[in-house]
């Protein structure tokens, strides 16, 4: 082989070697790229297998290509080729959802909007979300690529979130309504501490129109400068990271109120707050403090000792009576000793009961602090004989209040009362009267032996305290008139109910007579007493018979005196007539001595006729009444006429008659003869009983209703026991009187005549001081 040929061969070989090397390099690169594409395809396949979405390719001819995983998710046994095969009876997409999806596919194929739809799988509650649009190259135009996402869990979560959101909205609305309707101010501050929300109560408190005005003005409930401002409280809450509470005054509705302000920090840097009106609470706290103080002041004024211990058993309060009763210095008590120390100190002062085991006794009293009883009471008898009543009250805060009452005097009084009751019972049982006490309900409460003996009642039955209605039948058996027992019942009822006293009388079958009386007692009961009046009844009957006899004798005497007066008038008239005839000279002229005898006879006849008229007036007026003549009488002239009639007799005894007639005496309408005789009788008595050279004063006056005539003498006077008898007929006071005064006719006649005119006679006298008799005569007879 030639060198040139070899050269050519070498060149060709080198050329082909280069070409082979180049092909090898290109093949290696292609293999590398193929491996990369294969790896990418595998990665994409792995991603598609693990992706939550499944692909569905829809060609323009209606054919579909479905992912095997999607076929399995849809529950399809055979691979679908068309859209119609994507649904079945119990698998695939529900027919109604597929029909709607078909419309979305048709719209997207002609350039409509991308598909976004949710479809449900038949036979289950699973939900698939369909998204997709044009498939793009290399697929022809109109081909659609749909991605189906299984959103069953997400849908359930969404529904749950939707429900929660709805509930949250409802709760927020309710909370907003609650905040708006809250009766106290509430607000919300943004991070800049400016108001962003207020409720109606806040608006009303700052007197604004609405919340917008409050926020616009930045009105605050508390508008004080410095750290006490409303914003300062919100800042303090943010800095502390917890609610900030403070109490400050504010003016609301023109009234100064105390508010409790609460600022609550929020995670967003905002602050919410509310205000509560605690003015009433402050007032109540103040009143409580005053009440506690007043209670302590009251305790200091109490006679009982009061001591109070706190929950730690130290002395919190004591009053002065306790210090005196315990015989402990107030300075020592002011150091607030412990409960045990106080008991020990009282024991040293012998102000506790003597007990054998004092530590155990003290431990029992410590149980008062944890006792569930509302009140614990004990009686302490001290070595000195004093009796104390101890009342312990466990307090809600764990303390104890003790009230110490000295009942020594009460115990002594109770003992004395028991003694008095025994004495009373013994006294009642030995009384002569029958005594019983009925309660307000009519039951027999108390009785003595005399009561049971009088009515013959069984003591055991009486001890059952029968009612008065039950006693009446038992009492009726002992009475002459059984119906009279009802008087006892009615008397007890009227005394207990009506509080009226009453009396009565009953007669027993054994001949005894009893007077009973019912008296209301202060405690509402009724005291019923019975006294045996058998003897007094008999005496009373005898006295009544005697009084009847005396009255009959007095009547006979009066009739006798009246008849004798009439009988004496006839001969006296004859004697007077014949004497007047002799004095007139019908029997001839009389000698001087005979004329004196006839004059004496006429004077005696006149006096005797006057005395007889007085007796007749006295007796007839007592039996039939005085018949008056009615005429106008000048009382001044009538008094002077009576004075003139008695002047000669007064002159005989050298007595001085003083007359004083006031211009108001005037006139009366009545019987002039009887009124003149009344005045003469009084004057005649005064002249008769006044000693020689005595003084008699007569005065007359009057007013619109009556005339008053007084006769005063300086005689010996009348004793008090005789003053009651001076107006009694035929009663004579003393033994020195003469004429009609000696017969006791003057003053009784005067009283009879004056009282017949409707007037009255008054007597005032004392031994050694004289006598005054006053006649009061009405202007007209009554």
TrEMBL record:
The lineage of its organism: Bacteria, Pseudomonadati, Pseudomonadota, Alphaproteobacteria, Sphingomonadales. This is histidine kinase. SUPFAM superfamilies: ATPase domain of HSP90 chaperone/DNA topoisomerase II/histidine kinase, Homodimeric domain of signal transducing histidine kinase, PYP-like sensor domain (PAS domain). It comes from the Bacteria. PANTHER family: HISTIDINE KINASE 1, TWO-COMPONENT HISTIDINE KINASE. It comes from Sphingomonas alba. It catalyses: ATP + protein L-histidine = ADP + protein N-phospho-L-histidine. PROSITE patterns: HIS_KIN. Keywords: ATP-binding, Kinase, Nucleotide-binding, Phosphoprotein, Transferase, Two-component regulatory system.
